[in-house]
Prior knowledge:
- This protein has about 210 residues and is α/β, with parallel strands linked by helices.
- It is about 30% helix and about 30% strand.
- Adenosine-5'-triphosphate (ATP) binds near residues 23 and 43.
- Adenosine-5'-triphosphate binds near residues 43, 46, 47 and 48.
- Pfam families: ABC_tran.
Amino acid sequence: MHSPLSPQAELAGVHVDVQRTAVLRGLDLVVAAGEVLGLIGANGSGKTTLLKVLATLVTPVEGTVRVRGPVVLLGHSPALYPQLTLRENLRFVAGLAGRDDAVADAALATVGLAAAADRRADRCSHGMRRRADLARVFVTEPSLLLLDEVHTGLDVASAGLVDHVLDVVRHRDGASVVVSHDRDQVTRSTDRVVELVAGRVGPAVIV
Ligand SMILES: Nc1ncnc2c1ncn2[C@@H]1O[C@H](COP(=O)(O)OP(=O)(O)OP(=O)(O)O)[C@@H](O)[C@H]1O
């Protein structure tokens, strides 16, 4: 077990260029274990790019990235195979994580989708697909959870499920980073909010 004070993720002097344009410019960020960090910023400020750096999907041209443990990134659109059922999708995720089918089925039940488990993903509503995507967290048990605008289009109950998932990660001493354009939402769901400005993390935001 690591010390509660040790960071879950640490970025130092990170520079990222996207199509020859500097998006992140010497960005420093520490995400503490057990923390839920909110990330806001104008369109195009680099929030999604920052999440991809934390998920090691984008490699900076300069700077260091340290992330401990498994990472799950839930993007703008739920990552499901449209022609597979929700159960098949989650069992596939479980297989990749070396876990058995029962874990996938239990995760679907946890997010309130037991009755819809055998419905194809492309026949489900956006909210149902988002819930199924969130179920991945119960299968893969990430130490770092990255949520990119996942509140969009969710009703109150589904938004509550997002908060529940954040609590589950926090109680395991994992960390989460939540990107949102909704300042009220992100303030309610997180311990601290920072803003991306000119490719760097600005001062903490008090809303
Ligand atoms: N596939 C791409 N092709 C070209 N430019 C891109 C691409 N992806 C990102 N960019 C550029 O990188 C910058 C950062 O994009 P990013 O998606 O990280 O911002 P964001 O803060 O998440 O934006 P939004 O709030 O609109 O989702 C943008 O200015 C955009 O021009």
